[in-house]
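G.,

No rush on this.
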Amino acid sequence: MRTLWQRLTVLLLLAALSACTTLVRPPTVTAPSARSAPLAQAAWARVLQTFVNDQGEVDFLALSRERADLDIYVSFVAQADLQRMTEGTGQDERLAHMINAYNALSMFNVLESGIPDTHAGWRKVRFFALRDLTIGGTQMSLYKFENDVIRPYTRRRADPRVHFALNCSAVSCPVLPRVPFTGAELEMQLEKETRAFFAVPTNFRIDSANRTVWLSEILKFYPEDFVPVPAPSLLAYVLTYALKYALTNSPTFASAPLVPQDIASFDVRFTPYNWTVANSRRAR
């Protein structure tokens, strides 16, 4: 019930602030690559390979000086029709495109916002809800794209792994991969990113002494995507990955203690989200 009221409060706030919305126009790109899916996707691949490091941080200053490839892909996203993209087991071009589009538009929005230091406080509302971008010919905010387009699509599939692939350019977001998501490899990529997410201590940590499990606030933001389908509780969903993959395969957890047998009785708390922009040049 609390989550419902929080969501209603957000919607009412957005409605009240709708008059303050700014349209962030897509780049004007005349090159044929902005209208060709393979060429635009190749441009996006170059952006990820050139300006993103292994920690998922972006060199926004360098990108701002060499943004031709990002502009090509954002221009393509502005025109590409989501409904015409194919979907199906192991070949989901539509969802792969939506993930890439969200990640690219978040990056683009950082540049167009003047490369802020953080999304915290009021800036979060402005960045995610009060700046409309063009997606498939429709103007919408990142908030609306995620909650009115992407999440309903993935909830029909009872698959919340998309939350570990969407990158909002903040430090606590899932790590931005250095390669694009593709329809042919989407299942493998979503599985990989979900495993990697829960291998990070700030996203899943057991405090046995205080009988507490610490989880990423992402699960607190969207509990209805995880419970009761596909899991009976947030902790049960996390343990599906943490036990099977993170604790056994990740070097991060090579020396981690065994998961207590009575972990289901532990308190679940959430690590505060760090909204600092994941800029590779930020002061540490």
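When you get to it, here's the other one too:
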Amino acid sequence: MEDYNQASIQAAVNTRWAGKRVLFADEIDSTNLWARRLGREKAEHGTLCVAEFQSAGRGSRGRRWDAKQGDSVMMSLLLRPSFAPSFAPLLTLVMGLSTAYALKKILGDEPDVSLKWPNDVVIAHKKVCGILTEMELEGEAIRDVVIGVGLNVHTAAFPEELSDKATSLYLETGKEFNRAEIIGRIMQIFEKNYECFVRTCDLTLLKDSYEAILINKGKRVTVLDAAAPYEGTALGIDPEGCLLVKTDDGAVKAIRAGEVSVRGLYSYV
């Protein structure tokens, strides 16, 4: 039986601050909501909330995140950055990058782990992890930022409508994993990447690592411009995390998250 509790997670997290304080719940409404409540109570920078089950788990764009007990890593990290609020959305990409490289360390060369811009972690062209970042302000300054991570670990099957888009570590390897060790690895890599990020408040120091596993790079994409959708080739990202797309007439445009969908490989990526 997997040892997955506050003590085992705390023991696996060997960092100076990212997840140094771990809180664990057998059941919670949402780890993001939990962390946001703690933020209002002045919980310290780096507090990590982990739950075995969420009754009201949330994904991006208001979608529910449902997972059975024992199947997933569901966690949220509370941060108290001093930079301007405009930089906070990039933390979603920093966590996506960190999670992807943590899984590469755990899985080795096979199966291949990649990123679908901007922050979906992908294995075998299917999504294995989603990230939701939320921010609270005090006046014009950041009070706190919460980054939620939902990682499919032991899920054995998905509903038919998701089977061509979602996967899990178990489905791709046939193996079971120590989820506390996964959390520890993610936190260790995130701490290093975050400290690179705050030096420049952009992705300058992380750009090469990000593009090295960007599944969209060099691929055809469709930009969902409300006025006039167009196609092009993804070249990579700029320091602000925008996807650089070269259109068929040779122009290069910087696309912000939420404006592009990807076609040309499989149904998801």
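The two ends are 35 Å apart (CA to CA). Residues 179-200 form the longest helix (22 residues).

Enjoy the weekend,
O.
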